[in-house]
Write a structure and sequence with these properties.
heterodimer; A: 166 residues; mainly alpha; Rna Polymerase Sigma Factor, Chain: A; Arc Repressor Mutant, subunit A; 2 domains; 7 helices; 66% helix; elongated; B: 300 residues; alpha+beta; Jelly Rolls; 3 domains; 14-stranded mixed beta sheet; three-stranded mixed beta sheet
Chain lengths: 166, 300
């Protein structure tokens, strides 16, 4: 089994590409850029497929993606934009006042997330948006679970403070 | 009990003791954290159309540059080619080679692969710089701090530090170069250490310490991995400043002290600040205070 086989290559793309895109988005805050880098990472994996055993494919992709990010010289200020999840029913039952406050809070939250140090932001969003476990994040970022927990704690410690200001 | 520095993270993953949970609740922190988490539940990223992206990828993958020659008088072509080659050579000789920089922040170590598959694990707060483009010609990295290297076989591999250089063929070794100190441990193969005109060759299980430019006697070591990989630091007659500097890097804290002349032999673990301080301060008979925010430590 090798990533040189079209079928396996496609399978790796289907399972890994979205997580990789989000990973890059959390780093750079630019969705188009993130998607371009996903493409580039997979092109490089194809060109080097003989050297990449299937078990190492994931590691290869994240290393290449991270290098693409590091090589990009100018890092703009990161802006985070999320969408509202559709179809939550309790929304109709809330007062307009509450909904307004909620919206304001979310604005503040997104601004605060964008302002987090990159390493904390990565861990926080990979856990909260991608629903990855600490162990999975540790694997992807090549750090210990303890380090993930520390970063997560720091991120939450910063973010919880915005709650006062609502 | 686990540390306060991961408290919120463990709350999220449901790993708190009931005591810790009670504390979070009564301090009001819980309410704030829950608000954040609830708000995050509402957020998502735009959809990712994997099928479309894969189609695009396939096109991109197959695109190969096709050279086309349009009719041009042969002499012109030769002239153009010659000047192009000249330009290319000039560019190649004069281009600044881009450097790559890897860092490990205080509080976490990091593993990196170099272009030839050699591996570097950086200890907390350390940094390496190298030139990926020149790697084939010269395997050289600049190191600030401490790192363990697992070097693929090949040409000489050189680690430059401000206190001397370490040169090897394929091997595994650890270099510590903080302040004016250079400490090298060799686990496999052979390592040559040079500093200010002195030099020595280390074989497996040997270590050398260079203190203020003076090379000490070689020591024998038992371990096959630097101790910091397993989460501890050990010192032998190390100046107290360097020991506190290591505390700062491992725990990401600030240590304020006026200790200068003393030296310390012993070790500490990286997961418990309080115990680490005890290990260092008790034998030396000095007292310490951890300030409330756990970010600053005062040494008497």
């Amino acid at each position: 089994m090798s990533v040189c086989e079209e079928k396996i290559y496609e399978q790796v793309f289907m399972t890994e590409s979205e997580g990789l895109r989000n990973f890059l988005y959390y780093k750079c805050g630019d969705m188009k850029q993130a998607e371009d880098w996903v493409q580039e990472s997979f092109v490089r994996m194809w060109n080097n497929c003989a050297k990449v055993p299937l078990a190492k494919a994931k590691g290869f992709l994240y290393t290449v993606a991270n290098n693409l990010f590091l090589n990009e010289v100018k890092h703009r200020k990161v802006v985070m934009k999320f969408e509202q999840r559709g179809g939550h029913t309790d929304r109709d039952n809330e007062s307009p006042q509450y909904l307004l406050e909620m919206e304001e809070f979310q604005q503040k939250l997104q601004t605060a997330i964008a302002a987090l140090p990159e390493k904390q932001r990565m861990v926080f969003l990979m856990n909260r948006i991608d629903q990855l476990k600490y162990r999975e994040i540790a694997e992807k970022l090549n750090i210990s679970v303890k380090a993930v927990e520390k970063r997560m704690h720091k991120a939450l410690a910063v973010l919880r403070k915005i709650y006062h200001k609502v | 009990m686990k540390g306060r520095d991961t408290l919120y993270a463990r709350w999220l993953s449901g790993d708190l003791s009931s005591e810790e949970l009670q504390q979070l609740k009564s301090s009001g922190e819980l309410e704030q954290l829950e608000a954040i988490v609830k708000s995050m539940e509402q957020l998502q990223l735009p959809n990712y159309d994997k099928e479309a992206a894969f189609k695009k990828l396939k096109e991109k993958r197959q695109k190969k540059p096709v050279a086309k020659v349009v009719g041009m008088p042969i002499r012109w072509m030769i002239a153009a080619a010659a000047s192009l080659i000249l330009l290319a050579v000039a560019w190649f000789l004069m281009r600044p080679s881009p450097e790559a920089r890897f860092m490990a922040q205080n509080g976490s170590n990091q593993t990196f692969d170099l272009v030839d598959g050699s591996e570097v694990i950086l200890n907390d707060g350390s940094e390496i710089i190298y030139h990926p483009k020149d790697w084939e010609n010269s395997r050289q990295v600049k190191l600030k701090g401490e790192a363990v290297f697992d070097v693929e076989k090949g040409s000489d591999f050189v680690v430059q530090t401000q206190n001397g250089t370490v040169r090897v063929l394929g091997t595994r070794f650890n270099v510590r170069a903080w302040g004016s100190n250079l400490y090298v441990e060799c686990y496999h193969g052979k390592v040559e250490v040079r500093s200010k005109g002195q030099q020595t060759i280390l074989t497996p299980n040997e270590a050398i310490n260079v203190v203020n430019g003076k090379m000490q006697d070689e020591q024998l070591i038992q371990h096959k991995e630097p101790l910091w990989i397993a989460g501890s630091s050990r010192f032998y007659k190390e100046s107290i400043q360097e020991v506190f500097a290591e505390i700062e890097r491992q725990f990401d804290v600030k240590v304020r002290h006026t200790q200068k002349q003393r030296s310390f032999s012993g070790s500490f673990q990286h997961d418990d600040l309080e115990a680490a301080l005890k290990n260092i301060c008790k034998p030396l008979g000095i007292r310490y205070t951890i300030l409330d925010d756990k970010k600053e430590i005062l040494i008497e």
